[in-house]
Write a structure and sequence with these properties.
heterodimer, A: alpha/beta, D-Maltodextrin-Binding Protein, domain 2, B: mainly alpha
């Protein structure tokens, strides 16, 4: 009898374990944000949906492709990461606005620094229904690996948003203005800078080259902007590269100040105190970290056109605007041709900076 | 005074019927999920986060706190009962918890673990309440140089864990360090020891490795002795076995206070976290002369030190999270995401801009801690019987748990493969008298050590002076040197004394 009870208990435990593990996978697919929950999708007014579908119909026929199967959207970050959030926002808007009928399955896989999922994308057996979230920050792990793939092997579909950077310093410290930094490096002092290893490094190198002081900076690599700003707060580095979203609350609290905006125009308040490079008498320095979508190299031209048009509509929607505002990103939609140029240029920039 | 009045108003909000109910549900689920190896607190919190969507903000936050907190309690269950640590911090709990359970005292082991978790957590919360913002600022002082020397101290303390043959201990420690170097280096971006295997680019996933090395290796071991059955089957377990007597409490006292406080402070250091806290506290405990039994053989002191430290750190991690908006660990990062949804603006202005929110959350932690303890205590009499399960049922059960855990932590079969390889290696280690824990600890510590060492040298332009010129770093360096030479000095002193006599 006792054995039976124990066996029963074990069966229960195993069932719960299996269910939870299963849910773990599902959780990765489930929407993170409350506003993207499926219940709300169900509650979306029918009329709105119909109206949207009506307006979108011509675009589908224009490209000559309509998705019919489940669409796999591969993401090389964990659920909740930046790439994951942008992918879920894109797919949710596609579904809510009735732009795409079949279901999206978001597949998160960080294995092999994201390269496993990139190979899977390119080797998909259904290339017209496979997409990959890709940003300029992913360039390093793609190009430095030995998988033998470059952006040229994929079909660039669209860029959808961009993140520009600023250089930050501790308030009241030795380097809290561009002039102070310049005076220090001209006086022979080496300045320690922290930032991520991908885009922030590229744009910082451009900055150092522009002021002709490449030898005077030590660049420390951190895994995220958040980490490098923490190091700046603790006085372990002199300057930190960062995106507006990562730094804004510390600027508001007065702990750090932006000293240079690496953009062609000033940022909005409270980051508006930082001058752009042209204001300081140099050429503009910027390398927006774009976020976009790639597709397998074998995707048909019609499908490429369809997805490009679809993401254009997504980026024109109100929900997309809300997303950009929430994460302090800049709008950055580009069509097939321009996207291709931008992505190949980023690849060249990265390889040149290596 | 402000602190206390805010805290009490927080309690008023937290102590409604609905909120306590939500906290209780959160705690039950938290304990169950936390006890599943491989799921652990990080995945557990992420998994249960959507549950809170159904409630109003206050209730949701209280439930989140309960889930997070109860997860920390749950980790001890699987460590103690089946020797499969649910999460990295629980590795140290297994070292003494499982032997004590095998001695026929699973109830006592669980009781000690849960009481220590509660008390360690409580200490952490008191520290958080009164010194939170100040300690968060202190945590910021831990830059690359300080982290490097702190890791030196932690790495050298591994030597205390090495039992028996020193060479064998050193060998497994080196293997641990080697495993940690696999993958893309954070500092240079180069791939190391990947041998063209793509999956290795992101390194060897740690949780499947632990599950394999400890859990799966145990399955192989049990298979070898299957004929003998489980000697504990016959023993009858009663609730009386769970009770802690006066002596037990007095044995727990010092380790709980020391480890709880130490754990809370380590929790405040961004990037250190509960694993580091339990490693450091356990090794310090091992050095203590007051242990009634040898640590590693089922000593109450060992369980108390590890559990009090990791719960103290779990509470301490809220310091940088609330005061600076910096999540100190993966779990708090997920939690931060959840809290942001409910209007928490992470960052340095939280305590000034929305004190009610911050203090409400802190007071809900106290409530969650009590509820989690009560529920965990209720579960003990039921769950301790797991130890009596005959091997023929236990073996397939642990096997499935290992597979599920390895898969759940990576959501890929690659995790399962690592677990199996880890299991085979772990079995070979056991057969030939090599202990796995120094290896696992070396793997965790050397990742942090290497990244920080290279960063520190990068900052100083290659000069080692950076470790001496920074006060905190110098203190750790001195501790390290003292640890290194203390046996030699002690020996010389004794020799001199003997000669005099």
């Amino acid at each position: 009898m006792k054995k039976k009870q124990i066996a029963l208990l074990m069966t229960g435990v195993l069932t719960v374990a299996t269910l939870l593990a299963g849910c773990g996978g599902k959780e990765a697919e489930a929407p993170k944000e409350p506003e993207t929950s499926t219940t709300e999708q169900a509650e979306a007014p029918e009329t709105e949906k119909e109206a949207d579908t009506d307006t979108e119909a011509p675009a589908e026929s224009a490209s000559g492709f309509t998705p019919e199967n489940t669409i796999t959207f591969n993401v090389s970050s964990k659920a909740g990461g930046n790439s994951d959030l942008i992918t879920r926002t894109l797919t949710d808007i596609c579904t809510k606005e009735g732009l795409v009928e079949p279901t999206f399955v978001v597949n998160n896989n960080t294995d092999g620094s994201g390269n496993i999922v990139r190979i899977e994308t390119n080797e998909s057996s259904d290339p017209d229904h496979t997409l990959l979230c890709f940003s300029s920050g992913d360039m390093q792990s793609l190009l430095d690996s030995d998988i033998g793939m470059t952006v040229k092997d994929f079909s660039p579909i669209a860029t959808v948003a961009a993140d520009k950077q600023l250089i930050f310093a501790k308030t009241g410290g030795n380097y809290d203005s561009f002039e102070k930094v310049l005076a220090a490096v001209e006086g022979g002092t080496k300045v320690n800078v922290g930032g991520t290893k991908s885009n922030e490094l590229t744009v910082f190198n451009m900055f150092a080259e522009e002021i002709e002081k490449t030898d005077m900076f030590n660049y420390m690599m951190y895994d995220s902007s958040n980490e490098s700003i923490t190091a700046l707060l603790g006085d372990h580095i002199d300057l930190a590269m960062g995106s507006p979203a990562a730094a804004i609350s510390y600027v508001e609290s007065g702990d750090i100040v932006p000293i240079v905006a690496l953009s062609d125009e000033r940022f909005i308040a409270p980051l508006d105190g930082a001058p752009t490079m042209p204001e300081l008498g140099y050429d503009v320095v910027q390398s927006p970290m774009w976020r976009g979508v790639l597709a397998p190299g074998s995707m048909s031209e019609e499908a490429q056109q369809f997805w490009s048009d679809t993401f254009k509509k997504v980026t024109e929607s109100e929900a997309w605007q809300e997303y950009l505002n929430k994460y302090l990103l800049s709008p950055y939609y580009n069509d097939l041709e321009t996207t291709r140029e931008i992505m190949l240029q980023s690849q060249e920039d990265y390889l040149a900076g290596k | 005074m402000d602190t206390l009045s805010y805290l009490f108003s927080g309690f008023q909000t937290a102590l409604t019927f609905q909120n306590i109910g939500a906290a209780a549900i959160g705690a039950i689920l938290g304990i169950i999920v936390g006890a599943m190896p491989g799921i652990g607190s990080l995945v557990g919190v992420a998994l249960l986060l959507p549950l809170t969507y159904a409630f109003n903000p206050t209730t949701a936050i209280i439930m989140l706190g309960a889930i997070y907190y109860a997860n920390m309690f749950g980790g001890a269950f699987s460590s103690i009962l089946i020797n499969v640590p649910g999460d990295a911090p629980a590795i140290m709990t297994a070292l003494d918890g499982y032997p004590l359970a095998r001695k026929g005292k699973p109830g006592k082991a669980l009781m000690v673990a849960n009481m220590s978790s509660f008390l360690g957590g409580l200490l952490g919360m008191i520290v958080l309440t009164f010194f939170g913002p100040a300690l968060a600022q202190f945590g910021l002082k831990f830059g690359p140089a300080e982290m490097t020397t702190l890791m030196l101290v932690a790495l050298s303390s591994i030597s205390w864990l090495i039992e028996g043959n020193v060479m064998k201990g050193l060998a497994v420690t080196c293997i641990g360090i080697l495993i940690a170097t696999i993958g893309i280096s954070t500092n240079t971006g180069e791939a190391r020891y990947t041998f063209g295997v793509l999956h290795l680019l992101s390194g060897v996933n740690f949780i499947p490795l632990v599950v394999g090395f400890i859990g799966m290796a145990q399955v192989f071991n049990l298979l070898g002795q299957q004929e003998r059955g489980n000697d504990l089957v016959v023993k009858k377990l009663s609730i009386a076995d769970c009770k802690l007597n006066k002596e037990d409490f007095s044995r727990m006292g010092a380790p709980v206070v020391r480890s709880g406080l130490l754990g809370s402070v380590i929790g405040f250091i961004p990037g250190a976290g509960a694993t580091m806290a339990s490693i450091v506290s356990y090794t310090i405990q091992k050095k203590s002369k007051r242990n009634k039994e040898k640590l590693g053989t089922g000593a109450i002191e060992g369980i108390a030190a590890s559990e009090a430290a990791n719960n103290g750190a779990a509470a301490g991690a809220f310091g940088p999270l609330l005061a600076l908006g910096i999540p100190g660990s993966g779990t708090t990062a997920v939690l931060l995401g959840g809290l942001m949804m409910w209007g928490l603006q992470p960052g340095p202005r939280l305590f000034t801009d929305s004190p009610d929110f911050a203090w409400g959350l802190i007071s809900s932690l106290y409530v969650s801690n009590i509820i989690a303890l009560l529920l965990a205590l209720l579960m003990i009499p039921l769950i301790m019987k797991v130890i009596c399960i005959p091997n023929r049922i236990l073996i397939p059960t642990i096997t499935v748990i290992c597979f599920v855990g390895a898969y759940a932590s990576t959501t890929s079969m690659w995790g399962v493969l690592i677990m199996i390889i880890g299991g085979i290696m772990g079995y070979i280690f056991q057969r030939f008298g090599y202990s796995a824990s120094p290896m696992l600890l070396a793997t965790i510590l050397s990742v942090t050590f290497e990244v920080n060492l290279r960063r520190a040298l990068n900052i100083s332009g290659g000069s080692l002076s950076i470790f001496v010129t920074k006060p905190l770093s110098l203190i750790f360096l001195l501790i390290f040197v003292a640890l290194l030479f203390s046996p030699v000095i002690k020996k010389a002193y004794r020799k001199a004394k003997a000669q005099k006599a």
